[in-house]
Amino acid sequence: MRIGVLTGGGDCPGLNAVIRGIVRKGTMFYGDSVIGFLEGWRGVLENRYQPLDIDTIAGIIFRGGTILRTSRTNPAKYENGMERIKGAFQTNQLDALIAIGGDDTLGVAQKLFQAGLNVVGVPKTIDNDLSGTDYCFGFDTAVMIATEAIDRLHTTAEAHNRIMVVEVMGRDAGWIATYSGIAGGADVILIPEKPFDIEQVCDLLKHRHARGKYFSIVVVAEGARFANEAEQATQGKTRDEFGHARLGGISSRLSEEIERRTGYESRVVILGHIQRGGTPTAFDRVLATRYGVQAIDMVHRGEFGKMAALRGQQLTAVPLNEALGVNRKVDPELYELASVFFG
Ligand code: F6P
């Protein structure tokens, strides 16, 4: 078979391991030829790609980013976008395309499938909030990086009697905040699923002070918001081609309010893209490898319009339309457990 691959949306540690899994099993086991479109859907629109063979995937399993690069290109925003993608399919005589991406990238994949193209999806988001699968690769790495940062912030917070407000990624769901907050021993964790009452947050911190703990760690997901405000904190007014605002800055507002209401000195740390950069954990390398091999197997089984998914310990295939549109929120029981350690 002749197969195309692309990586779309924000990058995620483990993307290269997925590509490696696809190419290794595709070329060595099935005798496929594989091409990688560059920079997500942009590369398909412009028919820019590179051949992927056993040499191109050598030594990439431990590399972060993606050898194909990525973008948030939305074909619907371009004249004849979908037609151009169909054209790239024909020109390159593709039998199938594997799209590795989140809700946006896989949404395009689903439309292409509905238009009659053979498409398979691989779920990717650092936020770990895609429905249909229990776990996305890259999330474990982000949690590890955030946890290490929280560990380091503990000692400086303690030395100065300060509140450290740590902002982590998590646009619609607070998976990174909850996991890294539990692992790092955070004193308050704030997530998009539960808009917060600033008075309650301050009460928790005051309670800690009253029992002789003069420093605190507050972990806040970038998408969290004050209960009395409708909007998330954003940076600037620009939106990407899928209509998403650039989030960020909730930690500064939170820190100011905490300082104003409690009198405790407070500092802000925004981890940002550090959480997405660098080498994936062993867990993410293994999970991503499994996703890649599953995706190429799905192509050969003719399981199109579906996404590779992890259910429990098993890799399986779920229809793309089951995975799309519905954000997978943090399990309330897990958040409840985290809150045992608040204050
Ligand atoms: O969707 C994943 C994500 O990492 C979000 O957590 C974050 O809001 C966004 O991407 C950042 O996107 P960009 O890399 O385009 O700034």
What can you see in these coordinates?
It is built from eleven helices and 13 strands. The chain folds into two domains: 2-137 and 280-322, Rossmann fold (3-Layer(aba) Sandwich), CATH 3.40.50; 139-276, Rossmann fold (3-Layer(aba) Sandwich), CATH 3.40.50. The protein has a seven-stranded mixed beta sheet with strand order 3-2-1-4-5-12-13, sandwiched between helices. Strands 7-8-6-11 form a four-stranded parallel beta sheet, with helices on both faces. The protein has a two-stranded antiparallel sheet with strand order 9-10. It is an alpha/beta fold. The chain is elongated, with a radius of gyration of 21 Å. 39% of the residues lie in helices and 20% in strands. The model has no long low-confidence stretch (mean pLDDT 97). Helix 1 packs across helix 9 and helix 5 crosses helix 6 (175-184). Bound molecules: 6-O-phosphono-beta-D-fructofuranose.
Task: Based on the model shown, name its key terms.
seven-stranded mixed beta sheet, alpha/beta, four-stranded parallel beta sheet, single chain, 11 helices, 39% helix, elongated, 2 domains, 13 strands, binds 6-O-phosphono-beta-D-fructofuranose, 343 residues, Rossmann fold
